[in-house]
């Protein structure tokens, strides 16, 4: 069972895909489109992560963030916004947010951020179930660990692993990996993906992890945990 997530976003075109994606990953998701109802929503049910848009129709998201902290909310707050300046980022974190994601963002990256926040705050969530596997992703630092030992990955290897981890135990189609990691307009050979997967698979195995990148012929790839033999 995943954690509980509250999405605070007034744009339906952004909120609906976000909610559907999180629900498919096992989270209990609620959605509201304004700032006024946030405190009531958090007070009525246990919320592990608040995904908070800054540009709400009735009040500034930074004020909502401050109000949540002043009310005693101790869960995670992930700000998503089109504001990209360093000053806005600093102000957002100073207002009590735990993390900051600029629009536009990939759903896989957002999912990874949510899992990282759940792990960091000690809350429920699907990421915690993977901690015992030894594989650990630090999304903010873009670093990967096998236990306490860092695995050196290239930028593309890290991005591929992030997408696979976001859909752990599920097949990610080749086309989706190409569009999310490279570009939807990529015209190069898809062998680039195979080479990257091959290097990533080798590095995970070399680190002694039981996590494997499995190829599903004609479809895509799946990240799964395999039990040791014997």
TrEMBL record:
In this protein, which residues make up the domain named OmpR/PhoB-type? 124-225
Q: Source species, please?
A: Nocardioides agariphilus
Name recorded for this polypeptide? Response regulator transcription factor
Q: Which GO terms describe its biological process?
A: regulation of DNA-templated transcription
A GO CC term attached to the entry: protein-DNA complex
- List the transmembrane segments: none
One function term, GO molecular function aspect: phosphorelay response regulator activity
Which UniProt keyword terms apply here?
A: DNA-binding, Phosphoprotein, Two-component regulatory system
Q: At the top level of its lineage, which domain of life is listed?
A: Bacteria
UniProt DNA-binding region: 124-225
The record ties this protein, via CDD domains, to: REC_OmpR_PmrA-like, trans_reg_C
